[in-house]
Every structure is written in structure tokens, then in C-alpha cells.
Amino acid sequence: MSPDAGAALQARLAGLRAVLFDLDGTLIDSAPDLAGAANELRASRGLPPLDYALLRPMVGAGARGMLAVSLQVTPAHAEFEPLRVDFLARYEARMLQETGLFPDVPPLLEALERAAMPWGIVTNKAERFALPVTAGLGLAARAGAVIGGDTTPHAKPHPAPLLEAARRLGVAPGQCAYVGDDERDIVAGRAAGMLTVAAAWGYLGQGEPVEAWGADFIVQTPEALLKSLQLA
């Protein structure tokens, strides 16, 4: 990093006023329930369960990703929509059965709150799922904003959901950091003019490696996030 770029980054850190997070794979580990719904769907069609290690990386891609890996069905397939509806119904029935916060996330959020740093959630999970999940895990009452994939007319990687979260927090987008575990999170954060942080503890998908996403920071743990943002 050049001296000028380093100075610009330090200036952005000094002006940080809020932190926004992706949900699945960043704050919460929802993979067990999403993988469970996928294997329930396979069982209903007489297929054996897939190994969890095959399903976990695709969690960030939602129903589309889970159907692709569990049944090799893409949106172009004639049965995609009924299978999507079936999968989502199965997930909704169990979405808090095994899902929980990543172990180091509670201290992270507590540290932000002690520092009087507002935080919010921006996820591509539809409000139908995002609102009960965040409420059930005790996040909704603490977050300054919970933005779902259908809260605005566009989902990530479009910046609209992030801009709406900043608006609700009353903070300029350039004073926000956005933390996520998928490349589209970093694309959305950059488009919104936010500081971007890749959460390497998350699912990361099966696309480009995290080092190629162009994030301002890559962090391995929630504790390292606090240090990167100069909040610890």
C-alpha cells in the first residue's frame, strides 16, 4: 500500500461511526439448519444425505446455491421454482433449530456497544426469515437496523440495502464499515462507499479466493476485526 493510500485508509478509520454486518456466515452460523433443510429435501426424493462439508460453503448463495449443490438444479430447470418453495418451507420450519451466533461474535458486539458504536445487519435473507432469526437470537433488539434481501427493491451486490441501513442509523455511508463473508458483500460495500471487511471465518463460497475480492481488510476472527477497525 502506498503512503497516500495508507493515509487515506487511516482517515477513513478515524471517521468510522458505524459497523454493518452480513448475517449468515458473518454473525451467525446458520449452515447446520440450511444443510439440514437441503438433506430433508433430498430424503423426500429418496436420495441419501450429502456430507455437511459439501453443503456448508454454498450457504451464502441461499436457496439457489443449496439447490445447485444438493440436487444439481439451477434456475433454468423447469422444477427449480417448486423445489425452491419446498426448500424454503423446510428451512423455515427449522431455522432456529441449530443456528446460533459464532462463538466470538457476542464479545465483538458487546465491544461495539461499549464503544457507543452503532451496528446493523444487512442480509440477502428475505425479511420472512431474517426478522424472526435475528429476533430469536437476540440480535434484532440490539441492532440499529435489520435490512433483508427484500427490504429495498435491490439485494446485494447492489448498494441499496447498505445505503438504507446507513440511513436508518443516521450515519453517512462513508462513515460505515461493512463486514461480510461473500464477494458480493465487498462489491456492495465498495459501491456504497463504505469501508469493506472480508470475514474469513465465514462460508466464503466457491468463487474467487477472499484475497481477490478487493476488501480493505481481511480478518480471520471477530477479535481481529476490532483491531483492524482500531476499536480494540
Verbal overview:
Helix 2 (31-44) packs across helix 4. The relative contact order is 0.17. By secondary structure, the chain is of the alpha/beta class. It has helices at residues 3-14, 31-44, 52-55, 62-71, 80-94, 105-114, 127-136, 160-169, 183-191, 222-228, and strands at residues 18-21, 28-29, 100-101, 119-122, 146-147, 176-180, 195-199, 217-219. The chain folds into 2 domains: 3-29 and 100-228, HAD superfamily/HAD-like (Rossmann fold); 31-94. The protein has a 6-stranded parallel beta sheet with strand order 5-4-1-6-7-8, with helices on both faces. The protein has a two-stranded antiparallel sheet with strand order 2-3.
Structure, briefly:
Belongs to the HAD-like hydrolase superfamily. CbbY/CbbZ/Gph/YieH family. 44% of the residues lie in helices and 12% in strands.
Alpha plus pi helix count: 10
Q: Cα distance, first to last residue?
A: 23 Å
What structural class do helix, strand and pairing data support?
Answer: alpha/beta
Shape: globular
Return the CATH topology of the largest domain: Rossmann fold
Question: Would you identify the regions where 5 or more consecutive residues have pLDDT less than 50?
Answer: none
Which sequence of strands runs across the widest sheet?
5-4-1-6-7-8
CATH superfamily of the largest domain: HAD superfamily/HAD-like
Total individual domains: 2
Largest sheet: 6 strands, parallel
Oligomer: single chain
Strand residues, percent: 5-15%
Radius of gyration: 18 Å
Q: What sequence of helices (H) and strands (E) makes up the elements?
A: HEEHHHHEHEHEHEHEEH
